[in-house]
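Project standup — Tuesday

K.O.: blocked on the structure for the chain from last sprint. Re-posting the sequence here as requested.
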Amino acid sequence: MAEFIMQHLVLQAGCANVFEIASAAVSSEENGNDIYPPSKRILRTKGIPFTHRAARQMTKADYQYYDHIICMDQSNLHWMRYIIDDDSEGKISLLLSWANKKRDVADPWYTGDFEQAYNDIFEGCTALLQRLYLQK
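H.V.: unblocked you, prediction finished:
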């Protein structure tokens, strides 16, 4: 969901050419799977365009390639650090930390609340865009 929300926000801000946005999981259990159907439903209701995508697992190469690696919760943060070994460049952060919040994005897999997950992700992505691009 976050990949498409961020893509939508940068497109609206007229800076899509400045960002390369991708998503990856910390485990391989969803490899090849498309977006979870309830996530598609909430994106549709919010007017956020999305396309088919095949989930993939994060790699060490992602750390070298991307300027920022954003995760949704402490568990993902732990596993990302395990995958990359060392965040020596300080690239990894929690999404809501960009909005000065000290909590995880509500995980709809456990809560069933896709609206709250959307709101958290939208808030975090908006703050991320603001701080990385719009404040320059």
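K.O.: great, moving the ticket to review. DSSP finds six helices and two strands in the chain. The longest strand covers residues 69-71.
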